[in-house]
Structures are given as structure tokens and as C-alpha cells.
Design a protein that fits this description.
Number of helices: 16
Largest sheet: none
CATH class of the largest domain: Mainly Alpha
Shape: globular
Helix content: over 70%
CATH topology of the largest domain: Growth Hormone, Chain: A
Number of strands: 0
CATH superfamily of the largest domain: MFS general substrate transporter like domains
Structural class: mainly alpha
Length: about 400
């Protein structure tokens, strides 16, 4: 059992931290840099590139429960290794795309790869390996992968400028084959990594526990759907939103650049200062920070940088809670499948968030923050109703 050897937990955390950073940089964060050159080269409107990306997120949501179930049964080495191959294939096909059909097909494949290889799969792998002791490993992985955009955006932009967007996609495909795949093959095998035995309730307790469990799962699904809607909306529209408050483009871009460091800083605080607190505490704090920043900026004139940092800190904490809160509430048994169902609505929310928030931003300007703040206040209300130790 890996829980008896902390050194192996550190090593597994480091391996997944590296591969998660590269996987996020080469998939989820790719359209922000390459959407315009792809659209120009293929002769299509830019929004069609984001439509293909939204398709990939819907596919990620659909495959998530199946991926989690397979990791519960067989561990993460095979699934994460396959994710490297699938992402490489999708990126290679994207580099060869000549029109909308090729674009949609390549992003559909990338969507399957994201389901197999992003946070949910990594969290399920860690939970299968370390059981309830996986919290620090999950936090450590998110702490490292918080630099995915910091690494990915400048590198992708440079590759596009120096060689072209097709070559940038091929570069990332090669990275998956030469870096991520070998690292994933170093993960523990099916029998070696099984730390989970049983967390299931006794038969006499099962009926009472199931009602609480179903309600709690539905509540968490809403919490993370709201959080992912807001984070994706801000990722797509933050500079434009800040300009609606009256700041210049340069100021808006500079403020937006603080989101990443704020995310990492909040994750580090969770890793150190909040490691003994229940994950519910971090989740509740996370849902407050974006609405607090919006109120201070719109009503009291707080600088845009302050809002960006509060939003980033909340998003950073909520990302950790997405992995650690279900583990704390439900235990490690069946974690992957359960996580797939809980996060599926969040992926759907991500798919529609840029378009829907863009419509609201056009209609209401900075008033669109009422939508995001209301969603997160609703999430806070749900979290306040969830008990730290539901019936089990």
C-alpha cells in the first residue's frame, strides 16, 4: 500500500504535476492563443473554433464517469498513458485540419483525451493509490498545474509566431509522446497502487446514508457547475469585462495577468495554512471571493487588479475542493465514477459559459457580474447546508 511510503506519494505527485501542467497547456488553454490564427488560416469565423472547443468539453463530460470507473477498477497508469496517445492524435489531426470538419473531428478527439487525462483522472488515480490520504497529493498536483497557462500561453504564442499554429500543435503532440507518455508509464500498476479497500456503509446504514449521499452529490454538482461556469467566463471575457468598468485595455490585461499567481497563491495557502481544515471551509471561502471582489469593484471602486486577484484565489481554492471535498465527504471507494458524475454538469457549464456570458456582457456590461455572483452565492448556500460528515 502506497500510504505507508510517503516518498512514493511525493514522487507520484511530482509526476502527475508535470503531466497535468503539460496536458492543460496543450488542450484547455490552447484556443485562447490559437483560435485567431486557426480561423484565419481555415477561412472561418473565430467563434467556430470556440464552438469546436465547446464540443470537446461536452465530450469530456460524457466520457468522465466511464473514465473514473475504469480508474477505480484498474488504476490510472493505463488510462493516463492512453490519454497521452489520444491527445497527441487529436493535436496531430488538428495540425492537419483543412476545414470545419477536420477542426471539429480533431477537437472531438482532444475532448476524449481531456476526459482521460486532466484533473478528474489524476485525482481518481491519486485516490485509488492513497485512499483518504490523497488530499495533500491532490493539492500538490493542482499547485504545480496552476502554472499551465503561465507556461502554455507564452510558449504556444512563441511557437505560433516563429513557426505557425500547425507546428505549435505538432510540438505539443510530440511533448505528449516523448514526455507525458513515459512519465505516465512510470505510475504504479494495477495491483501495486491499490490502497482503497472499502469505505462503503454497512447494510443497516445504507438506506439512511443513500438519501443524504444523493442530495450531497447533487449539491456538489451544482457548486462545481457554478464555479466552472464563472471561471470559464472570466477566462474568456475578463479583459473585456474590466474595460466595461472604465479601465484601459492595458490595465485590464495587466490585471488579468494576476489571476494565475492568485490561483497558485491560494492553493499554496490551502497546502500549508489550511491543510488541517475540512475541505468544506476552503470551498465556502472560495465561493465568496468572486462576489466580494465584484461588489468592491463595482460599488466601491476597488482597482481591477484587486478583483482579478480575489477571483483567481477563489478559483484556485475551488479547483482543489473539486478533488478533495468529494473524497472527504464520501470516502475513496468508487471515487472515480462518483467524481465523473459530479463534475459532468461542470463540463457542460464550461461548454456554454463563454457564449452565454458574452451575451450578458454585451447586454448588461459590468452588470453581468450579477449573474456570476448570484451563481456563486447559490453555491455558498448549498455548501452551508452540507454536513462535514454525512451519514455513511
Amino acid at each position: 500500500m502506497l500510504t505507508a511510503r510517503p516518498g512514493r506519494q511525493v514522487r507520484l505527485t511530482m509526476v502527475l504535476g508535470v503531466t497535468q501542467t503539460l496536458a492543460w497547456a496543450s488542450s484547455y488553454y490552447l484556443p485562447a492563443i490559437l483560435a485567431t490564427p486557426i480561423a484565419n488560416d481555415l477561412g472561418i469565423a473565430r467563434h467556430w473554433v470556440f464552438a469546436a472547443f465547446s464540443l470537446s468539453l461536452l465530450i469530456t463530460a460524457a466520457f468522465g464517469p466511464w473514465v473514473g470507473q475504469r480508474i477505480d477498477r484498474f488504476g490510472g497508469r493505463t488510462m493516463l498513458g492512453l490519454s497521452s496517445l489520444v491527445l497527441a492524435a487529436g493535436l496531430g489531426l488538428l495540425a492537419l485540419a483543412q476545414g470545419p470538419v477536420g477542426l471539429a473531428l480533431s477537437w472531438a478527439i482532444i475532448g476524449v483525451g481531456m476526459a482521460m487525462g486532466l484533473y478528474d483522472a489524476a485525482f481518481a488515480t491519486l485516490t485509488r493509490a492513497f485512499g483518504r490520504d490523497a488530499r495533500r497529493a491532490i493539492t500538490g498536483v493542482t499547485l504545480m498545474a496552476g502554472f499551465a497557462s503561465t507556461l502554455g500561453w507564452p510558449l504556444t504564442a512563441w511557437l505560433n509566431s516563429a513557426f505557425g499554429w500547425r507546428e505549435a500543435c505538432l510540438f505539443w503532440a510530440v511533448i505528449h509522446l516523448l514526455v507525458c507518455l513515459p512519465l505516465h508509464r512510470c505510475l504504479p500498476g494495477e495491483e501495486e497502487d491499490r490502497a482503497v479497500s472499502t469505505d462503503a456503509p454497512m447494510d443497516a446504514q445504507r438506506d439512511e446514508a443513500d438519501g443524504v449521499r444523493r442530495w450531497t452529490m447533487a449539491g456538489l454538482a451544482y457548486v462545481f457547475a457554478a464555479g466552472w461556469f464563472v471561471s470559464t467566463a472570466m477566462a474568456a471575457h475578463l479583459p473585456g469585462l474590466l474595460q466595461e468598468t472604465g479601465v484601459s485595455l492595458a490595465t485590464a490585461v495587466a490585471a488579468g495577468a494576476l489571476v494565475g499567481p492568485a490561483q497558485v497563491g491560494a492553493r499554496f495557502a490551502e497546502f500549508t495554512l489550511m491543510r488541517h481544515a475540512h475541505p468544506l471551509v476552503a470551498a465556502r471561502v472560495a465561493t465568496c471571493l468572486h462576489p466580494l471582489g465584484a461588489a468592491l469593484m463595482v460599488a466601491f471602486g476597488m482597482p481591477a487588479a484587486g478583483f482579478a486577484m480575489l477571483h483567481g484565489a477563489g478559483n484556485g481554492l475551488l479547483t482543489i475542493a473539486a478533488g478533495t471535498l468529494p473524497l472527504s465527504l464520501f470516502g475513496a471507494q468508487g471515487y472515480g465514477l462518483r467524481q465523473g458524475w459530479i463534475i459532468a454538469p461542470a463540463r457542460v457549464a464550461q461548454a456554454f459559459s463563454p457564449w452565454l456570458f458574452g451575451v450578458m456582457l454585451t447586454a448588461w456590461g459590468a452588470g453581468a457580474l450579477w449573474l456570476t455572483s448570484s451563481l456563486l452565492f447559490g453555491a455558498l448556500a448549498v455548501l452551508l447546508l452540507i454536513r462535514a460528515r454525512p451519514a455513511s
